[in-house]
Design a protein that fits this description.
two-stranded antiparallel sheet, single chain, mainly alpha
Protein backbone atom coordinates (compact mmCIF):
# COMPACT_ATOMS: atom_id res chain seq x y z
CA UNK A 1 0.00 0.00 0.00
CA UNK A 2 1.48 3.36 -1.02
CA UNK A 3 1.35 6.46 1.16
CA UNK A 4 -0.85 8.30 -1.36
CA UNK A 5 -3.36 5.44 -1.45
CA UNK A 6 -3.54 5.27 2.35
CA UNK A 7 -4.04 9.03 2.74
CA UNK A 8 -6.69 8.96 0.04
CA UNK A 9 -8.48 6.22 1.98
CA UNK A 10 -8.19 8.24 5.18
CA UNK A 11 -9.53 11.42 3.66
CA UNK A 12 -12.33 10.13 1.41
CA UNK A 13 -13.99 7.20 3.25
CA UNK A 14 -16.53 6.44 0.57
CA UNK A 15 -17.36 2.99 2.01
CA UNK A 16 -17.27 1.29 5.38
CA UNK A 17 -13.95 -0.24 4.30
CA UNK A 18 -12.19 3.14 4.43
CA UNK A 19 -11.15 5.45 7.24
CA UNK A 20 -13.45 8.42 7.79
CA UNK A 21 -11.45 11.42 8.90
CA UNK A 22 -14.62 13.26 9.81
CA UNK A 23 -15.62 10.90 12.60
CA UNK A 24 -15.51 12.15 16.16
CA UNK A 25 -15.45 10.74 19.64
CA UNK A 26 -18.19 8.65 21.01
CA UNK A 27 -19.21 7.26 24.36
CA UNK A 28 -17.10 7.70 27.47
CA UNK A 29 -17.00 11.37 26.46
CA UNK A 30 -13.37 11.45 25.45
CA UNK A 31 -11.26 14.54 24.97
CA UNK A 32 -9.79 14.87 21.46
CA UNK A 33 -6.56 12.99 20.95
CA UNK A 34 -3.35 14.85 20.31
CA UNK A 35 -3.40 13.81 16.66
CA UNK A 36 -7.03 14.87 16.20
CA UNK A 37 -6.25 18.25 17.74
CA UNK A 38 -3.43 18.87 15.32
CA UNK A 39 -5.58 17.95 12.37
CA UNK A 40 -8.34 20.33 13.45
CA UNK A 41 -6.00 23.26 14.07
CA UNK A 42 -5.42 25.92 11.42
CA UNK A 43 -2.86 24.83 8.89
CA UNK A 44 -2.36 23.57 5.40
CA UNK A 45 -3.01 20.17 3.91
CA UNK A 46 0.69 19.41 3.93
CA UNK A 47 0.62 19.46 7.75
CA UNK A 48 -2.16 16.86 7.80
CA UNK A 49 -0.33 14.75 5.23
CA UNK A 50 2.81 14.93 7.34
CA UNK A 51 0.91 13.63 10.38
CA UNK A 52 -0.50 10.69 8.43
CA UNK A 53 2.87 9.96 6.84
CA UNK A 54 4.43 9.88 10.30
CA UNK A 55 1.77 7.44 11.52
CA UNK A 56 2.35 5.20 8.49
CA UNK A 57 6.03 4.95 9.37
CA UNK A 58 5.02 3.63 12.80
CA UNK A 59 2.97 0.77 11.36
CA UNK A 60 4.67 -2.62 11.69
CA UNK A 61 2.77 -3.86 8.60
CA UNK A 62 0.45 -2.28 6.02
CA UNK A 63 -3.11 -1.79 7.25
CA UNK A 64 -5.87 -3.95 5.86
CA UNK A 65 -9.39 -2.64 5.41
CA UNK A 66 -12.16 -3.84 7.70
CA UNK A 67 -14.75 -5.52 5.48
CA UNK A 68 -18.28 -6.19 6.72
CA UNK A 69 -21.54 -6.82 4.93
CA UNK A 70 -24.40 -4.37 5.36
CA UNK A 71 -26.25 -7.02 7.38
CA UNK A 72 -23.31 -7.39 9.76
CA UNK A 73 -22.96 -3.62 10.15
CA UNK A 74 -26.67 -3.31 10.95
CA UNK A 75 -26.47 -6.18 13.45
CA UNK A 76 -23.58 -4.47 15.24
CA UNK A 77 -25.48 -1.20 15.26
CA UNK A 78 -28.47 -2.84 16.90
CA UNK A 79 -26.25 -4.40 19.58
CA UNK A 80 -24.72 -1.03 20.41
CA UNK A 81 -28.20 0.50 20.44
CA UNK A 82 -29.14 -2.12 23.04
CA UNK A 83 -26.01 -1.40 25.08
CA UNK A 84 -26.44 2.37 25.13
CA UNK A 85 -30.19 2.89 24.89
CA UNK A 86 -31.69 -0.46 25.97
CA UNK A 87 -32.78 -0.75 22.35
CA UNK A 88 -35.53 1.86 22.83
CA UNK A 89 -36.60 4.72 20.57
CA UNK A 90 -36.80 7.03 23.59
CA UNK A 91 -33.20 6.19 24.49
CA UNK A 92 -31.98 7.64 21.19
CA UNK A 93 -32.51 11.14 22.60
CA UNK A 94 -30.99 11.53 26.06
CA UNK A 95 -29.56 14.24 28.28
CA UNK A 96 -27.90 12.76 31.34
CA UNK A 97 -28.10 14.35 34.78
CA UNK A 98 -25.12 16.56 35.52
CA UNK A 99 -24.10 16.97 31.87
CA UNK A 100 -24.38 20.10 29.73
CA UNK A 101 -25.01 18.40 26.40
CA UNK A 102 -27.46 16.03 24.74
CA UNK A 103 -26.44 12.43 23.97
CA UNK A 104 -28.06 11.20 20.78
CA UNK A 105 -28.23 8.12 18.60
CA UNK A 106 -27.11 4.54 19.14
CA UNK A 107 -23.69 5.71 20.34
CA UNK A 108 -24.99 8.62 22.42
CA UNK A 109 -23.11 11.15 20.31
CA UNK A 110 -22.51 14.49 22.03
CA UNK A 111 -24.38 17.63 20.92
CA UNK A 112 -23.69 20.97 22.65
CA UNK A 113 -26.06 23.96 22.79
CA UNK A 114 -24.95 27.16 21.05
CA UNK A 115 -21.94 28.79 22.69
CA UNK A 116 -21.36 25.82 25.01
CA UNK A 117 -18.22 23.74 24.95
CA UNK A 118 -16.71 21.38 27.46
CA UNK A 119 -13.79 19.01 27.83
CA UNK A 120 -15.44 16.44 25.57
CA UNK A 121 -15.41 16.46 21.79
CA UNK A 122 -18.69 17.09 20.02
CA UNK A 123 -19.54 14.21 17.69
CA UNK A 124 -23.22 14.51 16.72
CA UNK A 125 -22.72 17.20 14.02
CA UNK A 126 -20.03 14.98 12.45
CA UNK A 127 -22.48 12.07 12.47
CA UNK A 128 -25.12 14.24 10.75
CA UNK A 129 -22.61 15.24 8.06
CA UNK A 130 -21.61 11.59 7.58
CA UNK A 131 -25.25 10.51 7.19
CA UNK A 132 -26.19 13.43 4.94
CA UNK A 133 -23.37 12.64 2.51
CA UNK A 134 -24.87 9.18 2.12
CA UNK A 135 -28.14 10.62 0.90
CA UNK A 136 -30.34 10.18 3.96
CA UNK A 137 -33.14 12.70 4.46
CA UNK A 138 -32.52 14.99 7.43
CA UNK A 139 -35.28 16.22 9.75
CA UNK A 140 -36.16 19.92 9.56
CA UNK A 141 -34.23 20.56 12.76
CA UNK A 142 -30.96 19.59 11.06
CA UNK A 143 -31.44 21.23 7.66
CA UNK A 144 -29.36 24.16 6.44
CA UNK A 145 -25.70 24.89 5.87
CA UNK A 146 -23.01 24.41 8.48
CA UNK A 147 -23.08 22.55 11.76
CA UNK A 148 -26.18 23.07 13.87
CA UNK A 149 -26.06 23.69 17.60
CA UNK A 150 -28.38 21.79 19.91
CA UNK A 151 -31.55 23.94 20.07
CA UNK A 152 -32.23 23.04 23.70
CA UNK A 153 -30.06 25.05 26.09
CA UNK A 154 -30.42 22.89 29.18
CA UNK A 155 -31.51 19.47 30.32
CA UNK A 156 -34.71 21.05 31.63
CA UNK A 157 -35.58 22.46 28.20
CA UNK A 158 -34.67 19.15 26.58
CA UNK A 159 -36.99 17.18 28.86
CA UNK A 160 -39.81 19.68 28.37
CA UNK A 161 -39.53 19.13 24.60
CA UNK A 162 -39.80 15.32 24.77
CA UNK A 163 -43.13 15.24 22.93
CA UNK A 164 -42.48 18.13 20.56
CA UNK A 165 -42.58 17.76 16.77
CA UNK A 166 -38.84 18.46 16.56
CA UNK A 167 -37.95 15.75 19.08
CA UNK A 168 -40.23 13.17 17.47
CA UNK A 169 -38.74 13.87 14.05
CA UNK A 170 -35.25 13.58 15.51
CA UNK A 171 -36.04 10.20 17.08
CA UNK A 172 -37.52 8.92 13.82
CA UNK A 173 -34.42 10.03 11.92
CA UNK A 174 -32.13 8.26 14.40
CA UNK A 175 -34.22 5.08 14.39
CA UNK A 176 -34.19 5.01 10.57
CA UNK A 177 -30.40 5.41 10.26
CA UNK A 178 -29.06 2.78 12.65
CA UNK A 179 -27.03 1.20 9.84
CA UNK A 180 -25.40 4.52 8.90
CA UNK A 181 -24.63 5.29 12.53
CA UNK A 182 -22.96 1.89 12.76
CA UNK A 183 -20.92 2.72 9.63
CA UNK A 184 -19.85 5.93 11.34
CA UNK A 185 -18.66 3.93 14.35
CA UNK A 186 -16.85 1.45 12.10
CA UNK A 187 -15.06 4.26 10.27
CA UNK A 188 -13.98 5.69 13.60
CA UNK A 189 -12.57 2.31 14.61
CA UNK A 190 -10.50 2.18 11.41
CA UNK A 191 -9.08 5.57 12.32
CA UNK A 192 -8.15 4.40 15.84
CA UNK A 193 -5.37 1.97 14.92
CA UNK A 194 -2.77 4.53 13.73
CA UNK A 195 -3.37 6.58 16.89
CA UNK A 196 -2.95 3.57 19.13
CA UNK A 197 0.24 2.52 17.36
CA UNK A 198 1.62 6.03 17.72
CA UNK A 199 0.99 5.87 21.48
CA UNK A 200 2.20 2.30 22.05
CA UNK A 201 5.81 1.55 22.92
CA UNK A 202 7.81 0.58 19.80
CA UNK A 203 8.27 -2.94 21.14
CA UNK A 204 4.48 -3.36 21.52
CA UNK A 205 3.32 -2.04 18.15
CA UNK A 206 3.53 -5.28 16.18
CA UNK A 207 1.51 -7.14 18.82
CA UNK A 208 -1.12 -4.38 19.08
CA UNK A 209 -1.65 -4.44 15.32
CA UNK A 210 -1.73 -8.24 15.25
CA UNK A 211 -4.37 -8.38 18.00
CA UNK A 212 -6.45 -5.68 16.31
CA UNK A 213 -6.36 -7.59 13.02
CA UNK A 214 -7.19 -10.91 14.73
CA UNK A 215 -10.44 -9.37 15.90
CA UNK A 216 -11.34 -7.69 12.59
CA UNK A 217 -11.42 -11.06 10.83
CA UNK A 218 -14.87 -11.90 12.25
CA UNK A 219 -18.08 -9.86 12.64
CA UNK A 220 -18.19 -10.66 16.37
CA UNK A 221 -14.62 -9.45 16.77
CA UNK A 222 -15.48 -6.24 14.91
CA UNK A 223 -18.45 -5.75 17.23
CA UNK A 224 -16.19 -6.13 20.27
CA UNK A 225 -13.73 -3.56 18.91
CA UNK A 226 -16.38 -1.07 17.80
CA UNK A 227 -18.34 -1.25 21.03
CA UNK A 228 -15.31 -1.05 23.30
CA UNK A 229 -13.74 1.95 21.56
CA UNK A 230 -17.15 3.64 21.64
CA UNK A 231 -17.54 2.63 25.30
CA UNK A 232 -14.08 3.37 26.74
CA UNK A 233 -12.08 5.14 24.03
CA UNK A 234 -8.81 4.32 22.31
CA UNK A 235 -6.70 4.55 25.46
CA UNK A 236 -4.27 7.07 23.96
CA UNK A 237 -4.87 9.97 26.32
CA UNK A 238 -2.64 10.40 29.37
CA UNK A 239 -5.43 12.38 31.05
CA UNK A 240 -7.61 9.26 31.01
CA UNK A 241 -5.50 7.13 33.33
CA UNK A 242 -5.47 6.30 37.01
CA UNK A 243 -2.07 5.82 38.64
CA UNK A 244 -0.55 5.90 35.18
CA UNK A 245 -2.67 3.04 33.83
CA UNK A 246 -5.31 3.43 31.14
CA UNK A 247 -8.44 1.43 30.36
CA UNK A 248 -9.03 2.00 26.65
CA UNK A 249 -8.79 -0.26 23.63
CA UNK A 250 -5.01 0.09 23.46
CA UNK A 251 -4.58 -1.30 26.97
CA UNK A 252 -6.86 -4.26 26.20
CA UNK A 253 -4.95 -5.13 23.02
CA UNK A 254 -1.63 -4.85 24.85
CA UNK A 255 -2.85 -7.50 27.32
CA UNK A 256 -3.52 -10.00 24.50
CA UNK A 257 -0.80 -12.28 23.14
CA UNK A 258 -2.36 -15.30 21.42
CA UNK A 259 -2.57 -15.77 17.64
CA UNK A 260 -5.67 -17.89 16.98
CA UNK A 261 -8.57 -16.15 15.27
CA UNK A 262 -11.10 -18.57 16.74
CA UNK A 263 -10.32 -17.57 20.34
CA UNK A 264 -9.70 -13.87 19.70
CA UNK A 265 -13.04 -12.59 21.01
CA UNK A 266 -12.86 -14.71 24.17
CA UNK A 267 -9.35 -13.45 24.89
CA UNK A 268 -10.44 -9.87 24.21
CA UNK A 269 -13.34 -10.19 26.67
CA UNK A 270 -11.06 -11.63 29.37
CA UNK A 271 -8.49 -8.87 28.83
CA UNK A 272 -11.18 -6.17 28.84
CA UNK A 273 -12.62 -7.39 32.15
CA UNK A 274 -9.14 -7.38 33.70
CA UNK A 275 -8.43 -3.86 32.43
CA UNK A 276 -11.76 -2.52 33.72
CA UNK A 277 -11.29 -4.22 37.09
CA UNK A 278 -7.85 -2.61 37.36
CA UNK A 279 -9.40 0.76 36.52
CA UNK A 280 -11.83 0.46 39.41
CA UNK A 281 -9.07 -0.66 41.76
CA UNK A 282 -6.93 2.34 40.77
CA UNK A 283 -9.77 4.89 40.77
CA UNK A 284 -10.05 7.61 43.44
CA UNK A 285 -12.36 6.54 46.26
CA UNK A 286 -14.56 9.60 45.80
CA UNK A 287 -15.55 8.44 42.31
CA UNK A 288 -17.25 5.29 43.66
CA UNK A 289 -16.55 3.43 40.42
CA UNK A 290 -17.11 0.01 41.96
CA UNK A 291 -20.84 0.59 41.49
CA UNK A 292 -20.37 0.51 37.71
CA UNK A 293 -18.12 -2.53 37.38
CA UNK A 294 -20.81 -5.22 37.28
CA UNK A 295 -22.58 -3.41 34.43
CA UNK A 296 -19.32 -3.00 32.53
CA UNK A 297 -18.60 -6.72 32.93
CA UNK A 298 -22.07 -7.66 31.62
CA UNK A 299 -21.46 -5.47 28.59
CA UNK A 300 -18.08 -7.09 27.90
CA UNK A 301 -19.64 -10.55 28.30
CA UNK A 302 -21.85 -9.73 25.31
CA UNK A 303 -18.75 -9.82 23.12
CA UNK A 304 -18.46 -13.60 23.35
CA UNK A 305 -22.11 -14.36 24.00
CA UNK A 306 -21.62 -14.79 27.77
Amino acid sequence: MTMSCFIKGVLLADTVKLVAAETGTLIDKRRPSRTEGRLRSKGCFSSAAFVFATLIILLPNPLHAITLSHADVLKIGKKIWQNECNGTIAGLTSWNTGEDFASLGIGHFIWYPKGRRGPFEESFPKLVSFISKRGAKLPTLLLGTGEKACPWNSRKEFLQAQHSTEMNQLRTFLADTVDLQAEFLLARLDNALPKMLAEAAPSDRANVQEQFERLTKTPQGCYALIDYVNFKGEGVLHTERYQGQGWGLLQVLEAMHATSTTDAVNEFARAAKAVLTRRVQNSPAERHESQWLSGWIRRVNSYNGG
